[in-house]
Amino acid sequence: MTVRRTARGTARTPLSGERPDVLVCGASFAGLAVARALTGSGTDVLLVDRYEIGERATSACAAPTPWLVAMGLQDAIVQELPYMSFTTPHGTVRYRLPWSWSAFDYRRLCELLFEQTDARFVTAKVERREPHAGGTADHVVHTDRGPIRSPLVVDALGWRRVLSNAEPRIQPPEAFLSRGLEVHPERTVVQGDSLDCWVERGLIRRGYGWRVPAGREVRIGVGSYDPRDHVKRPTQRLAQRLDEDRVRYQGNWFPHRLRPATQDGVFFCGDSAGHCFPLSGEGIRPALHFGVAAGREIRAVLAGERARADAVSRYDAFSASHARAFAVAWHLQRLLPALPPRLLTLGLRLLSRRRLVDRAFGWYLDQAPPSSVSDLPGVRVHATAV
Description:
- The chain is of the alpha/beta class.
- The chain contains nine helices and 17 strands.
- A hairpin with a 2-residue loop joins β4 (77-88) and β5.
- α1 (29-37) runs parallel beside α5.
- The two termini are 31 Å apart.
């Protein structure tokens, strides 16, 4: 279990005097991507999180390699995975992808992202936001170290959407959330070259299992699209089937529906805006994709090129422009677990033709393409080759 390493003793000074130009709440993928996009803008950017940067991983930590390369994060990669396999009760289909996945070290990746920023960072628990008065008034965000005022605020705190004031906070299992859990057994040698998935009702009724080789460890887990279905025993069964130890558990809820990307002038990024692809449950790449987009809009405001209201509207429209792709993935999430297993297996085998694999996975990558990353002024990119 992660131990919170917040500031203590004399280091725990009040934050009530803080008024940064930009306040980014949450210092994981989305929040760090926002701060990265603001590098070199000459403004005061404050990152706030209850955990130290890179302290608390909650996913299998794999992302498309082209994205990690585009953002200069190659030094965090521990293993590249050019293949992907799908197993049903009636067989296994293995694809050579038009691009590769890469398993990475969460702490190292977050540290690399933070090194590419010129933001300040403090540990504090963000608790709520006062209702916004509108106009040019500052937002007031309350933390367990006192209130922070800022004209530009980002919520990258995760699915709880802490800074939302206009809607009831729907908790699981009623919320549009999936749940996942995984174990991290260690290995003596590096093995495997594919990200493996299991789609079996005997394992999980509506969801999938996964195995992600990651250097000297392997990440094995199960995700359920229905938050009412528990995943600990299925995760244990899958690990046992693969003859791996059931050790070092980690898990979390993750969204599978888009939510409004702005509210009262606040920018919501990552899981707080539902920026996690349905079906696959991939949230890292969307968090980076939308975090960079929000950072670009905020940067334009800071440069005097755009009014704050216009930037908010543009970012909201950018997020909404992905609604069709998210809807396609959502319908597939509902359809595939309901298919007869033999029919699902047949469909996976038909898809294995090279042209179809390239087209399907090319479309998937294009919904948040690495080409959307641009090296903004002042960003220090690490160019180490994979």
